[in-house]
Amino acid sequence: MSQELTKELAFDKDLEILDRYQLFSAEVLRLALAGMAAIGFLVTYSTKGDGKPSVISLESYNPRLLLCLALIALACSAFFALSHRFVSTESIAEHLVILRKGTGVSLRDIWFRLSTLTIYLSGILLCVGAILLAIAFVSAMQLQK
Fold first, then answer.
1. Which of 10, 16, 39, 104 has the highest local Cβ count within 10 Å?
2. pLDDT tens track for 28-38
3. Burial class (CB in 10 A: 0-12, 13-18, 19+), 16
4. What pTM was computed for the model?
C-alpha cells in the first residue's frame, strides 16, 4: 500500500471523528438554546396578565438571580459550542496542510487544544446552566393551597 493511500485513509478517519465531535457540539448548542427558551417561557408564564395567580412566581430575588445565572451559563455554552465548530474545522484544515506539505505541526496542535477546551467548556456550562435552571424553577414554584 502506498504512502499517499495510507494518508488519505487516515484523513478519512479523521474526518469521521471530526463529524462526530461536531454533531456533539451541535447537540450541545441545541440544548443550550432550548434552555434559554425555557427561561423565556418561565419569565413569560410567571407574569400575571389575566389576573389569575400563576404557579410560578419570580417576585423573590433568589429565582431571578438563578435564572440570570442560568441564562449566562447557557449563553456561554452556546458560544463555546459554536466556537468549537469553527476551531475544529480550522484544526482539521491545518491537519490537511501537514499531510500535504509537512509543515505547521505546532499551529495544528494549538487548534486541537483549543478545540478540546471549547467542547469541554460548552458541555460543562450546559450542565451548570441546566442545574441552575432546575433550581430556579423549583424555587419559583408556589404551591397552591
1. 39
2. 999 999 999 99
3. exposed
4. 0.84
